[in-house]
């Protein structure tokens, strides 16, 4: 029996790959997991009561695009956060951003660009669903290094004209996973001008936008609105997973042009699964409330300060501007992760597992990704063990 070849050269996913690397070895101390970006701060107190009040909703099919109340709550949040008016026809509720970042590409990327195979641009390292979307489409994924020399953001404008002319879609994550870099207003405006010049769409993955160090990250929607960009060029993806410590709720949204959203909704109607109604009710309440978000952000800002203290004076250390990962330089990420586990019991992710080799080079090889999601004392203990083991 035959299988499709378009996924045949995929590497093993990052976390099974990590288990293969580490699990045959005993930990060198009490284990502390700092690998996966699964928030551990308390979820909002209203989740249980709202869910209990909405249980009857499991007995009906939920609306595909989202309830009017949820779409209104999302639109209200966008207006407060970005000072942009986005009507319900420009919104679509998602089962988390991963589903949306994949399916929106299926809905919006054409089979050809100027009679040739389309290109999908993505930073390298990157959230792995970007590549899966490109391969599912039959598009050519182009991995653009996001290095210290480029501010840990991809230099799309520096690509050859032949690539840009075939580009149908560019992904950008800000704050970036894994590096925590934040795209400036000028960066976004430049990318939108490039998209206009070469006629491609931008998918702004902004699921870490509410975890920041000193100032709220600029959003793609607000820059698009301020510069007069075509709404059909810019689609922004947000989630409650990090913002509200609700990764298991699997609730997010995409905002963009009405024409593109209509196509995303149509695909969902045929091949997707809408959010259960009780989940939509909890989501409605979460998008309408900022108090729990502010409290959550204070906890992360304290973790930023702890990390800065632990790694004070360490050459190459750069604390993140947003998100909750540290991107720490090492000679070799795999060797460092294995040595750290066997010596201390601290578990981190080799940076190479989040990137692809291009021309024999992997831009993540010389890094480890460290998730600062554990309780504060555990996190601090893990960072000290890590520092003393790898940099002492």
Automatic annotation (TrEMBL):
GO terms for molecular function: pyridoxal phosphate binding; transaminase activity. Its cofactor is pyridoxal 5'-phosphate. This is Aspartate/methionine/tyrosine aminotransferase. PANTHER family: AMINO ACID AMINOTRANSFERASE, L-GLUTAMINE--4-(METHYLSULFANYL)-2-OXOBUTANOATE AMINOTRANSFERASE. Residues 32-378 form the Aminotransferase class I/classII large domain. It comes from the Bacteria. It comes from Cereibacter ovatus. Keywords: Aminotransferase, Transferase.
């Amino acid at each position: 029996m035959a299988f499709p070849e378009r996924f045949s050269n995929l590497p093993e996913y990052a976390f099974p790959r990590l288990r293969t690397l580490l699990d045959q070895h005993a930990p060198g101390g009490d284990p502390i997991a700092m690998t996966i970006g699964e928030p551990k701060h308390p979820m909002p107190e209203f989740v249980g009561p709202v869910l209990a009040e909405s249980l009857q909703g499991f007995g009906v099919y939920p609306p595909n695009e989202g309830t009017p109340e949820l779409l209104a709550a999302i639109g209200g949040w966008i207006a407060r956060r970005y000072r942009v008016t986005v009507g319900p026809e420009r919104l679509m509720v998602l089962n988390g951003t991963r589903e949306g970042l994949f399916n929106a590409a299926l809905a919006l990327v054409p089979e050809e660009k100027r009679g040739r195979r389309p290109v999908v641009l993505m930073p390298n390292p990157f959230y792995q669903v970007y590549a899966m979307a490109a391969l599912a489409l039959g598009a050519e994924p182009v991995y653009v290094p996001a290095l210290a020399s480029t501010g840990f953001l991809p230099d799309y404008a520096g690509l050859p004209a032949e690539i840009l002319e075939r580009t149908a879609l560019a992904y950008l994550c800000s704050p970036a996973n894994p590096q925590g870099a934040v795209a400036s207003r000028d960066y976004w405006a430049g990318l939108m001008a490039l998209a206009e010049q070469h006629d491609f769409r931008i998918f702004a993955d902004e699921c870490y936008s509410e975890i920041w160090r000193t100032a709220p990250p600029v959003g793609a929607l607000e820059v698009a609105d301020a510069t007069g960009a075509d709404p059909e060029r810019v689609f922004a993806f947000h989630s409650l997973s990090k913002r509200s410590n609700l990764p298991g709720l699997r609730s997010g949204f995409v905002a963009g042009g009405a024409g593109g959203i209509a196509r995303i909704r149509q695909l969902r109607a045929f091949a997707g699964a809408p959010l259960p109604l009780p989940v939509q009710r909890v989501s409605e309440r979460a998008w309408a409330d900022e108090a729990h978000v502010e409290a959550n952000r204070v906890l992360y800002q304290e973790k930023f300060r702890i990390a800065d203290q632990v790694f004070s004076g360490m050459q190459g250390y750069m604390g993140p501007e947003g998100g909750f990962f540290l991107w720490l330089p090492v000679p070799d990420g795999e060797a460092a992760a294995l040595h750290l586990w066997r010596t201390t019991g601290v578990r981190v992710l080799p940076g190479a597992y989040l990137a692809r080799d291009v021309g024999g080079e992997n831009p993540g090889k010389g890094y480890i990704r460290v998730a600062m999601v554990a309780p504060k004392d555990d996190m601090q203990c893990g960072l000290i063990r890590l520092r003393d083991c790898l940099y002492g």
